Amino acid sequence: MKKVTKAVIPAAGFGTRMLPFTKAVPKELIPLVDTPVLQYVVQEAVDSGAEDILVIISPGKEAVTRHFFPAVELEKRLSESGKDALYAQMQKINNLANIKYVYQYELNGLGDAVSLAEDFAGSDPCMVLLGDTVMDSFSSLPVAGQLVEVYEKYGSSVVALTEVAKDKVSSYGIGAGQEISPAVLKLDTLVEKPRPEDAPGNLAVAARYLFTPGIFKALKQISRGVNGEMQLTDAVVELMGSEPVFGCRIAGKRFDLGSAAGFVAANVEFALRRPELQEILGRQIIDILKEKNILKQ
User: Fold this and answer.
1) Which of 97, 200, 211, 290 has its CA 20 to 30 A from that of 10?
2) CA–CA gap between residue 181 and residue 188 (Å, rounded)
3) How many other C-beta atoms can be found within 10 angstroms of the C-beta atom of residue 211?
């Protein structure tokens, strides 16, 4: 069994749910307090064993590439002015991993984006982490690392799953199957955005995958759907016909930074975890809630 050392991060979408901000700034660079979402995702991949990372971007999102390139003048100024902590932060960003980029010139779905990683992956397994979603692990392993652990035990593709409310299943891909060990299912069903009454359960695909090279063959065999898009879920279903696909009920929480509500909620939660922000921000939030009569005096 090959060691998992590669990760793919699709980051080509327009981010229409966060317009007008994303008209000029890629949604993957939206800040979570003071750190871009994509940096959290790259760090998760690295902490899960990734040494080589492929980021899939679209024309106009070159700012994504610049974030991980050395900023020579900035770093020189930080060093000369004695801002050693900030200088060290910049150096860490520069050296997180061997990061490469490829363009998705036509946005034809997540499946199409992943298909562009075939040459990069070669005959190796690879993680896929959506670039606009941050995962907060409740385990000693990051969420992508939890998938790696399942892969190392069973030797096949793994999909991250998390429970959602029954009335929310129509917003997600929903998986079901036989639980073969604690938190691990052998999937037999995967449905994209089912109606609540048709859903096989409430375990939603949670923005993280680990695929064997078989996913690329599966992607070539599926039909394109609405607007000519290739659905990654369809490819996973196709893959299930040739190899076992497992679901890992993750120990963690998903933060979708692609919507205004998700962005605000995540920033409040992450800011409140920082001692230097906790007290003053907590007081400000309470005062605002009282002023708006949301919180009683």
Assistant:
1) 200
2) 15
3) 28
**Radius of gyration over every alpha carbon of the chain, rounded to an integer in angstroms:** 20
Longest dimension (CA), the chain: 63
CA distances 76 to 70, 84, 96, 204, Å, are 11, 11, 19, 46
Q: Where are the alpha helices (DSSP H) in 68-109?
A: 72-80, 84-94
Are the beta carbons of 196 and 169 closer than 8 angstroms?
A: yes
116-159 pLDDT, tens digit each: 999 999 999 999 999 989 999 999 999 999 999 999 999 999 99
- Contact residues for 9 (Cβ-Cβ < 8 A; gap 6+): 38, 41, 42, 45, 53, 54, 55, 56, 128, 129, 130, 131
Angle at 190 between CA 139 and CA 249, to 5 degrees: 10
Q: Which amino acid is at 117?
A: A
CA 230 to chain centre: 18
pLDDT interval class at 296 (50, 70, 90): low
68-71 contact pairs (CB < 8 A, 24+): 68/42, 68/93, 68/94, 68/96, 68/99, 69/94, 70/94
The answer to whether 138 touches 254, Cβ cutoff 8 Å, is no
Burial of 40 (0-12, 13-18, 19+ CB in 10 A): buried
How many whole angstroms separate alpha carbon 115 and alpha carbon 212? 13
Burial of 107 (0-12, 13-18, 19+ CB in 10 A): middle
Task: Say how many C-beta atoms besides its own lie within 10 A of residue 257's C-beta.
Answer: 28
- Concatenated DSSP letters for 7-31? EEEE-----GGGTTGGGTS-GGG-E
Its pTM stands at: 0.91
Q: Token pair for residue 128?
A: 């896929």
